[in-house]
Amino acid sequence: MFGGGRHFGLRGQRLNLAVTTIAGLDFALFGYDQGVMGGLLTLPSFVATFPEIDTVHDTSNYTSTIQGISVASYNLGCFVGAIVTIFIGDILGRRRMIFLGSSIMIIGAILQASAFSLGQLIAGRVITGFGNGMSTSTVPTWASETSRSHKRGKMVMIEGTMITGGIALSYWLDFAFSFLEPSTVAWRFPIAFQIVPALLLLAFILELPESPRWLVLKGQEDEAKSVLSALADLPPDDHLVRTEFAEIKDTVLEMSSYGYRDLFTMGPERHFHRVVLAYFIQVFQQISGINLITYYAATIFEKYIGLDGQTSRILAAANGTEYFLASFVAIWTIERFGRRDLMLWSSVGMVASMVILAIMNYLSEKHIGGSRPGVVSAVFLFVFNSAFAVGWLSIPWLLPAELVPLKIRAPANGLSTSANWIFNFMVVMITPVAFNSIGYKTYIIFAVINVFIMPVIYFFYPETAYRSLEEIDTIFIKTKSWFGAVSVARHQPSRYGRNGELLIDYENTEDRIHRDQSAADGREIGKEETSSGNGTAVHAENTLAGGDSEESVADPEKGRSGVIR
């Protein structure tokens, strides 16, 4: 279909687009899974099959809790899948992890779509989540490691847009198939439909390039060079390709051995500092309150705003569509304004929306203002989604892959993604109970949380736009305190321009000079130890330097291992 040769015969921009498309498809599947259940919870044929979670006719806290557990069980599975990725992500590689995750999701989808009992439905959701946890822990890393520095943010934003596209599609399918009531096809088909994108992932993922960084980490240097060459559409001996390869190889050599305990130790690369930043950016995304809307939009419109079931499903679908359209803003602004500004300004809009939602729901509960508070509430559910889509939809998936060094990137991303899913589980679990117990105050809680998040972003998270992943390593190596990364990033010169052009040759950077000097010092020590009969130390020193000769350290074409920017 794409022509002969490796990677479907694609190179350069077309190959990058193919990687982005398949990564985006995985995130569309992720979004679809998040949204599909929301439009089914009030569907008559669905609640007839699973009366234990019918909160339309039974408003007790017990039923709300069971509904929360049933819906959030998917997130619990995602959490476990993300944890598993910590231990096997670097063993299998990026593509095979995505393949495995998609395969497991198909099994879970079949169980859900064929369910006749709540137990089977929950089991299917847990299994689907388990596969999705593996995939979502891996896709941002794979996409970041196969993207150029000036396009990395935009590529991951496109993937984030696909999340909202999947959510919107799930809402519209829920609405379309609701007309098949009272047949159970009205809910079985929307759940089963997720098998389609999962099969497409299985068909294409293994033919696309593996992460060059992972290839170098595993000693497959020729393959890494080939991938770098294909992604840049340049000959393997081109200066830009060789520079990227040298930069990556040096980083890999410095980080060639690690244990899981390195996630929790500081060291000169400030591992723990970076893991904490990666972990909490995912936590912040979830405790912002987005998933009380994503999972329960139709329920909110029907049960708490007072609209009929059909109108609620239409509005939920429209809300998802608007969410999808708003996410395009981030694609065109992520590099221009940077990660920090988008998150900060989005937070302002999210706080304002939550405050207004709290006020309007208070008025509705007190029967003040007739239907007008409900109308305003509906509008600001849309506004909140728009604000979130610009700054918080995709960036929390991008930053962990950017902030964490290659040495611990796979396990650290698994850990940060597990944070996303366990807090997602918490929000989805408590939302029905919170609305049932404290009503409008639920929105106040999320407003306060979003106010707290803003200064944390401002003081602790450095700007990473237009930086290679190796440059970000340098920023943290130069950082001496938890507050220092923002300032260091602000004053550190960029090696690459806004169009990916080389501004500072890696051979001339202080990082390269320092590494060469360290290698030279190591060889001098090795010579002295050889003269005293200690050959074992010599071998260890040469291995650390990256080879058996000076040439292997200085020449990227003779033994240097690298990772793509």
TrEMBL record:
An example Gene Ontology CC term for this record: membrane
Disordered: region residues: 516-565
Residue ranges, compositional bias (Basic and acidic residues): 516-530, 555-565
Stretches assigned to the Major facilitator superfamily (MFS) profile domain: 19-465
Subcellular location: Membrane
Main subcellular location of this protein, as a coarse class: membrane
A Pfam family per the record: Sugar_tr
Keywords of the record: Membrane, Sugar transport, Transmembrane, Transmembrane helix, Transport
Transmembrane segments: 71-91, 98-116, 155-173, 185-206, 276-298, 342-363, 375-399, 419-435, 442-461
Alphabetized GO MF terms: carbohydrate:proton symporter activity
Protein family per UniProt: Belongs to the major facilitator superfamily. Sugar transporter (TC 2.A.1.1) family.
Protein's UniProt name: Sugar transporter STL1
Gene source species: Sclerotinia borealis (strain F-4128)
